[in-house]
Design goal:
Blueprint: H1 2-10, E1 19-26, H2 32-45, E2 50-54, H3 72-79, H4 83-89, E3 99-106, E4 111-118, E5 123-129, E6 143-148, H5 151-156, H6 160-163, H7 166-184, H8 186-189, E7 192-195
Helix pairs in contact: 3-7
Length: about 200
């Protein structure tokens, strides 16, 4: 835990008089959730104010991201989230409002439930998700950590049932990941890269 607090301090993320937006970027199954959980434990231990958001909580309904007529990788990168809406109603507000009202996605019902989340007056706001360094979002962050992990290692972390549909990974996820890597160079562009 101390190493994570040292990491935050070294990034300047422990100022007591402002909000600090930290992005945990990385491709699917790279270990983002694990890192965020460890950060949570470290912050709780030191009684530091924080709020955590998971980008996958805000994906759009299936009809808006599947069978749209676009290529599968395009659907995943460009349509999985309402990028402009999140820019204007989420990211842009995080440093200047006391709370945010957001549409949390319910996968079982394929719909959204609005929830209002209070934000700490000062402290750390952590956002974890894929493609955080896309051009529409990167400038909102104070610092970004990128988790770098080989594709096959990440794929082997999937369930056996999920791994049976390798073609979906090849056509949807991996092509979108390649697009992101080749266009945005996230490992090089992040403030800190962690190999996971």
């Amino acid at each position: 835990m101390n190493s994570y607090m040292d990491l935050l301090r070294n990034m300047g993320a422990q100022h007591d008089d402002s909000r600090f937006l930290l992005g945990i970027d990385g491709l699917s199954r790279s270990g983002k959730t694990t890192v965020v959980q460890q950060l949570r434990f470290a912050l709780e231990k030191e009684d530091r104010p924080f709020q955590i958001f998971h980008l996958d909580d805000f994906i759009v309904e299936r009809a808006r991201r599947y069978y749209t007529g676009s290529e599968e990788w395009h659907e995943y990168f460009h349509l999985q989230w309402d990028v402009d809406w999140l820019s204007n109603h989420f990211f842009k507000k995080l440093k200047r409002v006391e709370q945010v009202t957001l549409p949390f996605y319910d996968g079982a019902k394929d719909n959204h439930e609005k929830r209002t989340i209070p934000l700490p007056k000062e402290g750390l706001i952590i956002i974890e998700g894929v493609f955080l360094q896309r051009e529409e979002w990167k400038h909102f962050f104070d610092k970004i950590i990128y988790l770098d992990c080989p594709r096959e290692t990440r794929f082997n972390r999937e369930s056996n049932e999920t791994k049976k549909n390798r073609s979906k990974f090849e056509n949807r996820y991996w092509k979108a990941e390649d697009y992101y890597i080749n266009r945005y160079h996230p490992a090089e562009s992040a403030d800190i890269m962690i190999t996971s």
